[in-house]
Fold:
Amino acid sequence: ENFHIRRKGICERRIDKIEKYLVESNSLLDIGAGGGTFLNMAKTFIPDYEATEVSDLCAYNLKQDGHKVHHGAFTKMNLDREYDLVTCWHVLEHVQDIQSFVPKAKQVTKKYLVIEVPIDRRLRNPDSDFDGHFHYFSEKSLRILFEKDFNFLYLGEGIQNPALLCILQKK
Structure:
């Protein structure tokens, strides 16, 4: 419960930023849902929602809270449907095989893909102090990664700063 209280402000700002897309959507997939605070708020807009989560503990807690969860690495999942809206909050930097993410995201996205990634972090020597982030992104690198399959509706300052937020529409 304290976790959700601490996350509430960030998730409220996320909802405010993408409310237009929530209202226009009938289905949602939240990639890397973590503790589920965003899902708890988003479900008031979209009753047909699902989550992916790699963490055993988070997946268990999400299921205990009544969420439909696909447990495991998103890039290795066989999801057999499309979602109007796909969100990915501070997850992409943790995906080691970044090249497998884009086609998988394209496959499950029907309309909109929302991605937020941290920026302005000091690159560390991965041999001595790995922080869990395999990648760091700039506006240019995000464009290169997604421009073939998605149109950029927004690319700029994120919610959980310092961060970049992309709101993409599937081509």
